[in-house]
Amino acid sequence: MALMITDDCINCDVCEPECPNDAIYMGPEIYEIDPDKCTECVGHFSEPQCQQVCPVSCIPFNPERRETQDQLYEKFERLQAAKA
Ligand code: SF4
Ligand code: SF4
Q1: CATH code at position 69
Q2: Are the C-beta atoms of 42 and 70 separated by less than 8 Å?
Q3: Which ligand neighbours the alpha carbon of 24 most closely?
Q4: pLDDT digits (tens, 9 = 90+) for 15-33
Q5: Ligand 2 centroid vs 84 CA: distance in angstroms?
Q6: Measured in angstroms, how far is the CA atom of residue 43 from the centroid of ligand 2?
Q7: For a FRET experiment, which of 9, 17, 44, 50 has its CA 20 to 30 Å from that of 30?
Q8: Is residue 20 domain-resident?
Q9: Are 15 and 6 within 8 A, CB to CB?
């Protein structure tokens, strides 16, 4: 499942550099997460790094993007291949 940022975001900028997949970007008003790039940090870390650092806990799982661990790992592999 990808993660999402709610409108409780205070634009503190700390999550964006922590994302190993460059999935976090500044949207029109607050930070947003590209669900096609978010792997829940699978392949890189054991915990979602953005959730760990967000001071207002506004990064829940995105209920519209339910994915298995295998699907998340496949996404990680696709993203790595695209970088190469
Ligand atoms: S869970 Fe990981 S991959 Fe997804 S947005 Fe947060 S830091 Fe990036
Ligand atoms: S860490 Fe949380 S509050 Fe800060 S920019 Fe990211 S989502 Fe917004």
Answers
A1: 3.30.70.20
A2: no
A3: 1
A4: 999 999 999 999 999 999 9
A5: 29
A6: 22
A7: 44
A8: yes
A9: no
Mutate to test the pocket of ligand 1, among 9, 33, 59 (most ligand atoms within 8 A of CB): 33
The verdict on the CB of residue 50 being under 6 Å from ligand 1 is yes
Query: How many domains in the chain?
Result: 1
Confidence at 1, pLDDT banded by 50, 70, 90: confident
Cα torsion angle, 16, 18, 34, 40, sign:
negative
State the average pLDDT over residues 41-51.
Answer: 98
Tokens for 82, please give them: 């695209």
- Full residue range of the structural domain in which residue 61 is found: 16-83
Q: Whose CA is nearest to atom 2 of ligand 1?
A: 41
**Quick check: CB of 40 below 6 Å from ligand 1?**
yes
The CA distance from 55 to 30, in Å, is 15
